[in-house]
């Protein structure tokens, strides 16, 4: 039988991957669902693949990149908020101690997100993120944050799309934050990005309609929220799902429970030298229950250290 | 200059339309945004067109078709709800007086929607709608409801898609209700349907993950909700918007306020003989402020009676 004309020979696809278990499992799945007349065939419109973002498509250490944006915004907006210099967690940020601010935990971070991600129109917010993402650098690697993406995962996105998959991001990160750069960085357009959101309202300002961001958390696209976000935005069950933490477990379970074939994949951070090594006890991207379930169910677990020839794009 | 290879000659596109103002305006817009190098060119990824559903793509008289589904569900579920026979608006429905039930207004309808659209998984709900839509008939025409779509609008969807537009439904109707049939009826896949929703929760039932519908209204995709639904689901501003009532006005305003070219269209129900004639004083699909604004702004207003050769598909 002939291979589909779109399919590049296996030796050329996913070139940053060693010829190991995960690459073989991913390609076998794609071959199965693409084989017309085959028992696992899935029609192109139902080839939905979902990807977590932080820790799955790009790095998330030492802190989520959106937290870095938030801290930068606190510094930038401080002149308009004189009270911040006496009020935690803002006070620590403005005193130059980001770690002390972040050590105050998730409620403190959410406080800063609400204060810095609202009070402007959606267009003003996008413009702010756009300006930031083109210059923001990683604190230890010195690379631009948008270059801290995983080259092997870009290759997975590519081989899926070459086989008529529609690729989505389903992340706990802010939907409007990610949409600014996902097309450039991952080739994923805004309408295929699902994430957490704050509430917005529509209003007319001097005859011009605007959508204004409110200081109120709307939807949290994490854990149980991920299948719900998928249901709301896509209305179909994915057949492939990629994550890296317990926050992705429900998304993988939802994907695995579909009637047809499915592919569930965890990116396991095992490379302390080229990236970071963390799982069960990590303060960020904790992978514990998910790792157990992956082993029990026979899901694909990518060993970054052993299976990835390169981590980040070379250029 | 040559026409783009995809473009069918104008005499063959939109064949159910008379060669009048609206057809010319729609085709001129498509030509402008598709002309590479032209001053109004829009790249394919940004060619987003949004369509209201009830009264824009299919009929909405004498009552919204989803209200018919709701009443049928009340009858079907009645044996499990003995209290309904003494409780309005259910009582009137079960006594065979649908009009009396509907005359109790929107709160009564919402009460019935909450009671009949919840308490089951998303898959059970879809199965119920799927079964219903294939047999439900219109009370006066006797046609299947899914044949009460506007043939001229199907042709607009087609010419837009042939010119690399992505077509979306943005409706006050239920998102999960519509998604069951929009692909078959309009060629619009579930992920391009935006609508009102009730709240859902994710849970594990005997190890199987399910999404369960709750008796609580979530998002209302009408009026100010339409630009918000568009922002949430698409994350881009449409360049073309089609509606038929004041409930679409904010969506059209949002579309018109984009930086580039835009097309705003109202379907005006002017044909009492072949369909229904209604606008400013209608109890359903009221078009009043919208009609004034369309005239003031020079938006396209389709005169159904004068401009449409046929209303419904022939077969
Ligand atoms: Ca993650
Ligand atoms: Ca309507």
Explained architecture:
- The structure is a homodimer of 315-residue chains.
- Chain A is an alpha/beta fold.
- Chain A has 2 domains: 200 residues, Rossmann fold (3-Layer(aba) Sandwich); 69 residues, no CATH class.
- In chain A, 35% of the residues lie in helices and 17% in strands.
- Chain A has 13 helices and 9 strands.
- In chain A, the strands form 2 sheets. In chain A, strands 1, 2, 3, 6, 7, 8 and 9 form a 7-stranded mixed sheet that branches.
- In chain A, strand 7 and strand 8 form a beta hairpin.
- In chain A, helix 2 crosses helix 5.
- Chain A is globular and about 65 Å long.
- Chain A starts with 20 loop residues before the first helix and ends in an 8-residue tail after the last helix.
- The N terminus of chain A is likely disordered.
- Chains A and B meet through strand 4, strand 5, helix 10 and helix 11 of A and strand 4, strand 5, helix 10 and helix 11 of B.
- The structure holds calcium ion (2 copies).
User: For the report, how would you describe the main beta sheet of chain A?
Assistant: 7 strands, mixed
The proportion of residues forming helix of chain A, as a percent range, comes to: 25-40%
Largest interface: A-B, 34 and 34 residues
Number of strands of chain A: 9
Q: Runs of chain A with pLDDT <50, length 5+?
A: 1-5
* Strand content bin of chain A: 15-25%
Mean pLDDT level of chain A: 95
The CATH architecture of the largest domain in chain A is 3-Layer(aba) Sandwich
CATH class bucket of the largest domain in chain A: Alpha Beta
The tally of domains of chain A stands at 2
**Overall 3D geometry of chain A?**
globular
Bound compounds, each kind once, are: calcium ion
What class do helices, strands and sheet pairing of chain A give? alpha/beta
Work out the helix count of chain A.
Answer: 13
| N-C termini distance of chain A | 39 Å
CATH superfamily heading of the largest domain in chain A: HAD superfamily/HAD-like
Return the string of H and E elements of chain A.
HEHHHHHHEHHEEEHEHEEHEH
Oligomer: homodimer
Work out the radius of gyration of chain A: 20 Å
At CATH level 3, the topology of the largest domain in chain A is Rossmann fold
